[in-house]
User: Fold these one by one.
Assistant:
Number 1:
Amino acid sequence: MKQEFRIAESKVEKEPILHFSFNGKTYAGHKGDTLASALLANGVKMVGRSFKYHRPRGIFSCGSEEPNALVTLKTGQDVEPNTRATVIELYDGLEAHSQNHMGSLKYDLLAFNDILSPFLSAGFYYKTFMWPAAFWEKLYEPIIRRAAGLGALSGKEDPETYDKGFLHCDLLVIGSGSSGLMSALTAGRAGASVILADEDFLLGGRLHMEQMEIDGSSSSAWADKAIAELSSMPNVRIMPRTTIYGSYDHGIFGALERKTDHLKSSDGKPRQVLWRVYSKRSVLAAGATERSIAFGNNDRPGIMMAGAVRAYANRFGVGTGKDIAVFTNNDDGWHTARDLAAKGVNVKAIIDSRSHVNITAPEGVQTHLGTNVINTKGRHALSSITLSNGETLDVDCLAVSGGWSSNVHLTCHQRGKPQWNEQIASFVPGGELPVGMSVAGAANGSMTLASALQTGRDTTIEVLKDLGIKAIKKALPKVEDEASETSVFFHVESGKNRAWIDLQNDVTAKDVKQSHLEGYRSVEHLKRYTTLGMATDQGKTSNMLGLAVMADASGKTIPQTGTTMFRPPYTPVPIGALAGRSRGKEFRPTRKTPSHKWAKANGAEFVEAGNWLRAQWYTKPGESHWRESTDREALATRKSVGICDVTTLGKIDVQGKDAAEFLNKVYANAFGKLGVGKVRYGLMLREDGIVMDDGTAARMSDTHFVVTTTTANAVNVYRHMEFCRQCLWPQMDVSLISTTEQWAQFAVAGPNARKLLQKIVDKEHDISNDAFPFMACGEISVCGGTPARLFRISFSGELAYEIAVPTRYGNSMMSILIKAGEKFDAVPYGTEALGVMRIEKGHAAGNELCGTTTAQDLGLGRMVSKKKDSIGNTLSEREYLTRKDGLNLVGFKPVDESKSLQAGAHFITKESEPTMANDEGWMTSVCYSPNLGYSIGLGFINNGSNRIGETVTAADPLRGNTLDVEIVSAHFIDPEGERLRA
Amino acid sequence: MPNSSFKLEASSPLAGFSQDFGTVLVEELTNKALVSIAEPLGMKTKLQAEVKKHLGASWPEIGTTTNSPKAYHLLGLQTDMIFAFFDHPGGLADAAIKLMLKDNAYCTDQSDAWVIIKVSGEGIYAALERICPVNLSRDAFAVGTVQRTSMEHLGVIILKHAEDSFVLMGATSSAEDLLHAVTVSIKNTN
Amino acid sequence: MIINHPYLGPRDAAEFVYLGDASLLERPDWQSEDAASEFHDYLHLRDNVAGEMRELWFHEQGDRSWLVVTRNTITHEVIKVEMARDVAQKISNGAAA
C-alpha cells in the first residue's frame, strides 16, 4: 500500500496511517487528506463514468466545484450517493464506490452510449422522448433513465439524524482565505461579534495551496497564525465544514454545517446542522473558481484544473502525475509549473494560447506560446497530448487553466446582476447586493494576494464604521507582487474531436453551437436545452466556457450574452438537513387532552384532530370492531349517561366594559341582552357572509364572557377576534386571552347527567332544573372546594352539561366522573359516538361549516340580526345567498334501510343523469344510528326544507354506491328538544 | 356543604420531571401561578399605580420583567397585558390578584395552561440555539428579559431569570413535546 | 424576512401571520346607502402593488399585536412598522371628528 504519488511535506499528518477502500480495494492515506487527494496519492486516476456517455472520468478539481469525481459513500442503509471525492475528509475505514456504470468501472457495459453519441446530442431528451407515448413507461423511463444516472439511494430510512439552529452576529464572514481572514481579524479585534464560516475542514483557503510568502513566512503558516488568534477571541465563532449555501432577505443566510461526516460514526449526534444565520452585515470572501478550456477530448482522467494540480502538490503533498504539462491562457497556469518544479515533479511543457507573456518558465520546462492543445489520447487515463503546432507530448497529467471566475453566487441570490470585467476576464458582483453584504478579495475581482488582504481589511473597516464599531487600522501584512495577466480564450476548434464544456452533464461545444442554430438565443434557454450547468456542480468550472462558445456563435460579446441566474443552494443540501428533526411523529407537535392518561389506560383508540389526539372510542373486552364500541357508547349515553373530554374546543376569555357589545359585533346574532349566568349559541360569519365558526358564549359577569370555538378553528377565531379588537374597533374596552389549556372540560350527557353531577358538585351549588335550567352557566366548586365552571349546554341532544376544572385536575376528574357514575353505568365516549349523537340531533359541525355555506343554508338564517352591525351581516344579504330555492340542511335516510349512506354523494332527482347540471346538493355527514337502527345522514339540498318526504338519488358513481334516499327532518332524535330541558 | 366523597388529585404536565444532563439541569417547576393582568382601555396610569401598590413591583415594559419583595415576578408580554408569576396560593390563582386590583384590571388564571420548565447551566446556550430563533447571547438577552416566540412549532415564553438560567413556558397539552425538544437539544450539543 | 417590531425589535417573519392589504382597517359603515357595494369593494378590491404596500401582519408567536407593515413588494425592504391599533385609533378619531 505504498502511496506512489506522495511527494513532499504538506498539511496532511503523516501519522497515523488511515485505511480506506475504493471499489473494494484498500488504500492508505492520512488525516488531512480528502478522498480525492488520497486516491491520487495512490495513483487512482479513473474514478467514475460520465452521466450520459459513460466516458471514463477522473478527479478534475480540488474543491466543491468538482464535476467528475462523484462517489457513493458507505453501503446499505447508510449509503450516500453523489458525494464529491474532492471535499470528503478522509477517515479510517472510509468506504467508497464509483457510480454510473454497469459491471466494473473499467469495463462499463453502458459505454456503448459513447458510440451512439451522434444520436444523443443537445435536446436529445426533448426530441426523443416525445413519441410514441407507449414507449415512455416501458422503454424510455426504465432503460434510458437508468443508463443516464447518478448514484442510487438505499430506499431505506436514513439512520442519521439532523438538526437545525439559529445564529446571530454583527458580521458574517463567508470564506476563510486571505481576504476572509483579514476581515475576521479586523472585526474580531474591534470587538464585533463575528462568525467565520468556510466549507473546507482546513481554514485558510488557497493560502495552504500556494507557495507564497506573507510577512516572511509561508502563506500557510500565516493562515494558521491568524486562525489561532481568532480562536482566542470569545466574540468570534469559527465554523469550519460549514457552507453558506444561500443568501436570503434582510441579512439572513442559510448554512450547512457538517458535524460528523468526517468521523466513522455520528455516535448518536446529528450528522449535519442547518443553521439560519441572522447577520447585521456580511463580508463575502468566497474567492474564485478556476475554469477550464474546451479542446478535443479534454475530459480524460489526468486532465485537471491547474490550480488543483498545484493544490494537491502544496497542500496534500501529492503529485498528480509523473510527467505533467500545463495548458493555460493566463499567468496563473505558470505558477503551477513553478510550484511543481520546485517540488521535483517533472513538468514537460507549458502551452500558452497567448503569443506574448511577461512571465518566465522554471528551468528545463519547454514553452509553447501562441499554441493550443488540440487533442489527447489514452483510453482509461491520459497518455499523450497533441498540440496545434503538430507536436505530440507523452504526459500522464495535463493541468489546464482558463483563468479564474469570481465566486459571485451569493451576491445574486436576491437581485444582484454580475458585471463583466474584461481585465480579469471574469464576471464580478454587480447590481443590488443582498442587504448588508460587502464583497472582498477574489470574489470581488481582487485576484492577487496583496489586493485580497487589503480589500479584506478595508471593506471590513467600512462595515464596522457602519455598525458604529471603532476599528483599529493595522498595517497590512507584507507580500510580494505576483504576475496575474490573463486573456479571454476558452475554446480550441477541434474538428471531429469532441470538446467538452460541462463534464458532468456531458455537454460539448458542438451542442452549444447546435442549440444556437436551432434558435435558442437566450442564455437561459441554452442552459435548459443543453442542460449546461444544470448538474450537481451547477457548472462552476464550465459555465464560462459555454457563454464564450455561445457568444462566439451569436456574434455577441460575453457581457452581451450575460450569465444565467444563480440560485441557492451554492452546493447541494441534503433533504434530511432541510427536514431537520421534523420526521415521523416529530413532524408536528402533538397535543394531548387532560384525560389522555386515563383514556389510554381504559382502552381508548385515538384520532388526530388537528394536532390534538382525542379518544375516538373506548374498546371494551370482547369488542372487535369500532362500530361495536361506538354503538354501545351512543346507546348507553342516550339511555343513562356518558362522558366525553371536550377540552379541545377553543376557549377565549373576553373581558371588558364593552365585552357584550364586542361579541354583538363579532357574532351574527345578538348578545347585548344575554343575562349573567346564561349561555347562548353564537354564529360567527366571515365578512363575505359565509359561516366561519360556531360556538357558545357564556356570560360569567357583566364584563366577562367565556367564548367557545370549534376545535379546528380555535386559532383562527382567536386571531380574527384580535383583528376585530385591534384593527376594527380599537375604541372598545375589551381584552382577550385564550383559556383553552387552562380548563379541562367534560361533556356529561344523558338522562342521568344531573344525578351524576350532584354526586360531585359541592352541595351549596343548586343544579336542579329550576335553579340551573337549560343554557345556564356558573362558577361552582366540586369534590370539596375545587373551583369549577358548569355550563348547561348539549351537543348530543340529551340533558347535558359541560363541566370544567383547572387542567391539573383533568385526568383525576375523568376517573371521578366515571366512578361517581358507576351506579348509572356511566360510559366514557369518544369522538365517533359524539359524531353519531350530533348527527342524530341534526347539529352542524365542520362538515357542514365547510367555508361555502351560509346561515340560511344551515337553517339559521333568522339568527342573523339585521338590526346591528356585525361581521358578515351586510354581505350575507347578497342576492344569491338569500335566494328562495337555495340549499337547506336536512336529514336523509336510505329508502332501503339495510343500505349505508356515504358522505360526499351528490343529490339528483330520481331517474336523472348524474351530471353537474343536475346536481342539487351533497351529503355532508353520515353515520349508523344505533338508536334508529339504520344509516342516517345530513346534507344540503336545494329547497330541502320544503321537500321533506321526497325521494331523491344520492349519486356516488366514483365509489359505485348510488342509492335512493328519503329527505327527512335533520332532527332524528327528540325534535321538540324535550330531553334538553328535562 | 362541600362534597368530599370524591377527591380530585392534581397532576403537573410533566409529573415533576427533573434531570441533570451534566452541563444543563432541566426541572419542571410545579405549583406556580400565572395570572394575566390586562389593562382596561385608557386606565394604564391607574392600573400601574395599583399594581405597584398591591403587588410591590412596577409595571414591566414589554420584553422586560420586574420583581417584588412579595415574590411576584411580573412579565411584560404585551403592551397592554402582563403576566404575574408567583407561588400558587391554591384554588383559583386569579382570585387573589382580582381581590387586590378589583376592577382596575382584567385578570385571567393561566396557571394550568402552561408547563413551566427551568433550564440552567453553562451548556444551555448551545442547546437553546438549536430551537430558539431569538438571540440569547448575554449582551442581547440580559437577566430579566422575557420574550414570546416559537420553538419546534410550539409557542414558548422564554424568561431569563438568572445568569445561565432560563424559564420556558409552553402549552400544557404539548408539554412532552417541549420537554423533548429541549432534552434532544441538550443531548445533541453536550 | 425580518420585521422590525416597534416594541420588540427585529423579529423573524416566521413568528408572524400575514393577512393582506392594510385597507382592511377601513371597514365601511353598515348603515350607508351603498353598504353592500362598499363592503364588496372593501373585501374584494385590492391594488396589486409592485412597490411600497401597507400590509397587516399578526405577531402570533409574539405579543399578539396586529401590525401595519409598509413593505416594498419587489425588494422586500421593510420601510415602516406601526401598531395597527394606533393606526386604527387614528382612523376612528378621524371619522369621529
Note: The domain at 2-92 of chain C is CATH 3.30.2270.10 (Folate-binding fold).
Number 2:
Amino acid sequence: MVTGKGEKIIEINNLQKSFGTFVALRGVSLNVRKGERIVICGPSGSGKSTLIRCINRLEVPDSGSIVVDGVALSDDVKAIEGIRRQVGMVFQQFNLFPHLTVLENCTLAQIWVAKRSQKAAEETAQHYLERVHIPEQMHKYPGQLSGGQQQRVAIARALCMEPKVMLYDEPTSALDPEMIAEVLDVMVEFAESGMTTVCVTHEMGFARKVADCMIFMDEGKIVEASDPNTFFTKPKSERTKLFLNQILEH
Amino acid sequence: MVGLGQVFLLWLRENLFFSWRNGVLSVVVGGFLLWIIFLLGDWFFLSATWSGGIEDCRMRQDGACWPFVRVRFSQFVYGFYPSVERWRVNVVMFVFFTGIALLVWERTPWRGKIVLFMLCVFPLASWFLMRGGFFGLADVSTGRWGGFMLTLVLASVGIVTSLPFGILLALGRRAESLPFVKAFCVVFIEFWRGVPVITVLFATAFMLPLFMPASVNFDQLLRAMVGFILFSSAYMAEVVRGGLEGLQRGQYEASDALGMTYWQSRIRVILPQALKIMIPGILLTFIGLFKDTTLVLIIGLLDFLGMIQAGISDPRWGAPNVPFTGYAFAAVVYFCFCYSMSLYARHIEKKFSAGRDRRH
Amino acid sequence: MSEAVDHPYRERRGVLRGLWASRKGRGLIYQVLLFSVLLLLILILVSNAFYNMEQRGLKAGFGFLNRTAGFGIVQSLVSYEETSTYGRAFVVALLNTILVASIGVVLATMLGFVIGVMRLSPNWMIARIATIYVETFRNIPLLLQILFWYVAILKPLPAPIDLFQQGESFFLSFNNRGLVFATPLPQAGFSLVLWALSLAVLASIAWSWYARRRQLQKGDQLPVLWPCLAGIVGLPFAVFLLLGLPLDFVPPVMARFTYEGGSTVVIEFFALLWALVIYTAAFIADIVRAGIQGIPYGQSEAAYSLGLKRTQTLKLVTIPQALRIIIPPLTSQYLNLTKNSSLAAAIAYPDLVSVFAGTALSQTGRAIEIMFMTLSVYLSLSLLTSLAMNIYQRRTQLVER
C-alpha cells in the first residue's frame, strides 16, 4: 500500500480482529520498509493500538498474516519470542517494572533473553540511558521518577535489546503536558538516526518532523495513507479532514 | 444484529472451547461436575428416607436420613427450652428477622431509629423475655437454652457489645497524645487477636470462677459470653481502625478547624462516615463470629451444631447415614447465613465504591 | 484565649476544672482514670484469685511441671510414658501442634495457590469450580468441617488398607485408627548416607554460585535446578544402595486391640489436617487471586514485548511483584491455621490445647499457670510473626516519590 525504498521488514496482509462482538480490525494491510518512519493516528476505538499490538503478537489476530523480518507470525512460541526480540515496544502506561531499579529494568531482558553478561548489559544500559538523558537516575526505582523520565527509561529499555523496529503505542498520552516535549525529543532523535519506527500518536508536530508516511485509521480500516505533506495540506477523505480539524484546533 | 443463539455459541467458544486443550478440559471437568451433582442429588433426594423413623433409615442406608432432622428439628432450634414457653423465643426471632429484613431493604423509613432499636433496646428486651422470672413469666435458666437460638444469642451478643468497645479501643489506639491509653489498647487488641478463640473460651470458663468473689456465680453461658465479648471487641477494633484510617485527613482537620471538641468531631463527623465505610468489614467480622459460635460446643454448651452433634452421638440414632445427614443439614444452614451476609457485604461495598467514583 | 483571662478563670474553678479545660490536661485525666481503674481491677482480681486458691488448697507456681502426669498420650514425637512429667506432656503436646500446623501450612499453601490460579483461568468452567470451592468452604464453620471429616468420613472407614502384609505383621496400614507403619531403624553405616546428603547440598550451593558468577561474566546460563535436584536426591540414594540398604524396619504386629511395634499417626491427625487444609486453602486462594490481579497486565505485556518467555516473565516480573501483595495476608492465614489447630480439642487430637489446657488442667486444677503457658505459646508466635512481617514490609515496600 505504501511505497518506499529498501526491503520490507513488516508485511501485514488483510488483518482481522474482533473482541466479542466488537470488531477492531476489518482487513488491514500495511508494509513497512527498513528505516521507514510511520505515524498512525485516528479516533479512539479505530483499531490503531490493536494493529501495532498484533505486530509483536500481544494480540492474536483472527485472520490475516503478518511477516516480520522474514518470519511469519503463527502460534509457534519460538518464532514469537524471536520476533519480540527484534521488535521493541513502548507503552502508553510505561509499564516499567516497579520492583527493579532503572538499571535493572534495562538489563533484565539483555541478561535473560540476549544472554549478555551482566557487565556488558550494564554498559549497554548506561549508553542508552545517557542517550535518553537520564544516566544519573540509574539506581533509582521507577516510582521515584516523573512520568516523562519513566517513559524515557521505557524507551531506553526497549532500545537496549537493539531492536530492528520500534513500536510506540501512544507514548505521550499518559503524560502531563510539560513532560511531552522531553519524550518527543528523545523519540525524534532515535527516529532520525535511522531506526524503523511505527508510532501511534496524536502529536502532529512530531509527525510532521519525522514521518515518512502518515496513516489515518477509522473503524478498523486504513482510511488514508500518504506522505505528511499531502496528509496535512490536502487530505483526500472527509473523515480525515474532520479528524485533523478536531485535533489541530487545540 | 446478532441472534441470541449466536451470542451463546460465541460465548461458548470464547469461554470454554478457545483451544482444543481447553475444550477437552471443559468437557472432562464438566462431566465430573455433573457426576458429583448427580451423586449428591441421588443421595440427598432420590435415595433418601423421608418418612418414618430410625428403623427406616437403617433399612435404606444408601441415602440421607431425613427423619433424623424432622424428629429433632425443634431441639435443633430451641435446645431444651420448655415447649410451652417457646412462643417467647418465636417472638424474639420474629422481631430479629423482621428488623434485619427492614434494614436490608433500602427504602425502609426511619432506618437509623431501627438500627438504634436493634442495637440497644432489642437485645436487653429479648434477654429478659427469654430469661423470664417476672410478671408471671416462668424462669428459664440459661442452662436450658440451646440450638439455633443459642447460636443467635451468642452471635448477637458478640456483635452488639463489640461495636462500642471496638470503637473505644480503636479511638484509644489512635490517640497518639495519650501514651498510656494507647499502650493499653494496643496490648488488649493484640492479646485477644493473638490467641486462639478456643483458649479464650477455656480461659473464661476455667479462670473466671477463680478471679471472682466466691459469692458471685457466673453460669456457663455468661462465661462464654465474656469470652466472646473480649475477642470480638478486639477484632472489631481493628475493623474500626481501618475505617478511621480510610477517612481523608481533611475530615479531621475540617472538624477541628470548626472548633469542635474531640468527642464532638468523633461523634458528629468522623464516626458516621467511618462506620459507613466499615459496614462490609463489620459484616465480615460478623461472619467470622457467627462461625466461631460453634466453638462453645467444646466447652460443653449445646448450640445449633452442638445439638446436631449430640443427636449424632445419640446411640438411639445410630445409623451410618445419620452423621452425614446431620452435618450436611448444619452445613447448609451455616452456609446460607454466612454466604448471604458476604453477598450483602459485597453489595454494600460496590454501592459505596460506585458513589466514590462518581464524586471524582 | 489569652493567658491573662485564662488564669483567674482557672483559679476560680479549681485545679481539676482547669485541667479539664485544656486538651492536654483532659488527656492526663483520662490516662490517670484508666490507670486507676485498671489498677483497682487487677487488685480485686488478684486478691480474689489468692483467696479462692487458698480455699481450694492450691499453691501458685510451676512446681507441678515436675510431677508425674499419669495419663497417656496417643501420639508423641518424643518418647512419653504415663510416668512422664507434666513438663514432658507439655513438650509432647506442643510438638503435636507444631506437626499438624507445619504440614497444614505447606499443604494449604499448595492447594490455595492452585485454586487461586484456577480462579483466574480463562476457562469459565475451571474458574467457576474454583469460586464454588472458595465460597463453600469458607462459609462453613471449621469445627463443623472437622467433625464432618472425622465422624462422618474417617471414623467409619471400612476394612484397613494393609500394604506388604506378612501374616500378622505388615509394613503400612491406613484404617480408622490412623496410619500405622513400620518404624525405620538406621543400621551401622547409615550415617554415611546423611553425610552424602550434606555433601550434595553443599555441592549444589557451590554449583549455583558458580553458575551465577559465570552468568555475570560470560552471559551464558548453566542449568541449576535439575542438576541440583538430581544431586541432592541421587547421591544419598546411590550411597544407600552401595552400602547394601543399611536400614531396618520394625513392623507393626496386630495384637488383640492395638498394634504392637511400628509407629502410629492417629486418625484424628488426618481429620484435623485435612479440614484445616481445605478451610485455609479457601482463604489462601482468595489472597493469591487478589495478589495476581493486583499486578497490571501491562507488566506481563512489557516483559513479553522484550522477548521474555512465559516462565521467565512469571519468575522475574509477575511473581516477585505478586508475592509482595500476597505474603503479609498469607502469613496471617498461617497464623490462623496454627491457632485453629487448637480445635483439635473437639476430636481429641492430642495438641497443646486438648492435652495441656484440657487434660492437664482438669487434673491439676492449675488454671492460671497452665493458661498462662498455653496463651504465651500462641501469643509469642503471633508477635514474632507480626514482627517479621513488619520487617518484610519495610524492606519490600515499593519506593515511591
Note: Chain A touches chain C at residues 56, 58, 77, 81-82, 84-85, 87-89, 91, 93, 95-99, 108-109, 111-121, 140-141, 143-146, 154, 157-158, 161 (CB under 8 Å).
